Amino acid sequence: MPPDCNAIADGPLESSDSQSPHFPATLAYPNAGLPCAYVSQKGECITSSNIPYYLFANEEEFNFAEVATTKGLAGSVIEGLLKGGCCLKHDLKHSLKSNYHLQKKIDQMEDGLGVDSWEKCRLENITWNEQHTGVPIEFWYRDITKCAKSLLRQLAYAEHLLYAPQQRFDEHGRHVYSEMHTADWWWEWQLRISSAELQRHTRSCLRCADSDMADLA
Amino acid sequence: MLTAIWQTLLDDGDTVLPIIFRSDTTHLMNFSGDKKAWPVYMTIGNLSASARMATAMHSLLLVMLLPIAIKMRDIPLSRYKEQ
Predict the structure, then answer these.
(1) Residue A51 CB-half CA count within 13 A
(2) How far, in Å, are A65, A129, A199, B1, B16 from residue B11 at the CA level?
(3) For residue range B28-82, what is the model confidence (pLDDT) as tens digits?
(4) How many whole angstroms separate alpha carbon A45 and alpha carbon A38?
């Protein structure tokens, strides 16, 4: 460890970029997670080569569904477009029969968090107070691992995701904290729940990194 | 967190996935007596803070919708005073 690594910086840094240009020394945890390829939840690999507009037959259909949902079209308007004599192509009207069918398809889309992801739980005999004893309560919940997976799978987050905890030091060798992955607890947990072999490997990597940083200073 | 049992240890390339929960009571409507619910949202700590906080990124997912507890004032005032 570099000298004074436990000293806390005077104030929180406003920086949130992972590149950290004004941290002369940034120590990233070796062999922590890396982004991997897109894997479909259903186990079947959908690559861009076979069906790029999966669930929808072609680009036209996909674009229609995108406009219909993102522009906030009312259900009756979509229904009218699909069933009425608008200038939509015949095959589009044929495959997307109605607003109901369109919504069904959108619910099936690959984020795994459609209506089906909600589960209902009922707890019996809850005592709120003297008057209300034995009241059943019902609530809805989702599986948090599914939610976390879904968040990790979003392409929009690809450039914002961080996998390896870091230790950052300023030019005086003081430990600076800003983002969540620069906190001590992530680093400690990463080390604590690693397998013994990996811990040894990590420690040796860190020793090398420390000597490099000492050279820098 | 301290009582968690780690059945499998991290392997090469694995990482920690911090899960952040947020919750507050939310007013739903004024009709039929001020309906409220208590939603619980979650997000992951692996997203950089700027992306996580941005509303346009939609990084908060609703994971639970809890009912509001029946309040103590449901007990008639006369009995409440006796206590």
Answers:
(1) 13
(2) 41, 49, 10, 20, 11
(3) 888 776 678 889 999 999 899 888 888 888 889 999 988 876 665 556 666 656 6
(4) 8
CA distance B14 to chain A (A): 5
Chain-chain contact of B66 with A139 (C-beta, under 8 angstroms): yes
Helix, strand, coil in percent for chain A, rounding step 5? 40, 15, 45
Point out the residue among B11, B16, B46 whose CB comes nearest to the CB of A195. B11
Phi/psi of residue A138, each to 5°?
-120, 140
3-state percent helix, strand, coil for chain B, nearest multiple of 5: 25, 35, 40
Whole-model pTM: value is 0.61
| Structure token pair of residue A190 | 């990463």
Burial of A12 (0-12, 13-18, 19+ CB in 10 A): exposed
- Residues in chain A with CB shorter than 8 Å from the CB of B9 are 193-195, 198
In degrees and rounded to multiples of 5, residue B27 shows phi and psi of: -75, 125
Q: What are the tokens at B6?
A: 């780690």
ipTM beyond cut 0.95: no
Instruction: Measure the CA–CA gap between A156 and B51, rounded to whole angstroms.
Output: 10
Region of residue B26 (phi > 0: left; psi between -120 and 50: alpha; otherwise: beta): beta
Task: Give A143 to chain B, closest Cα distance, Å.
Answer: 7
**H or E stretch including A55?**
none
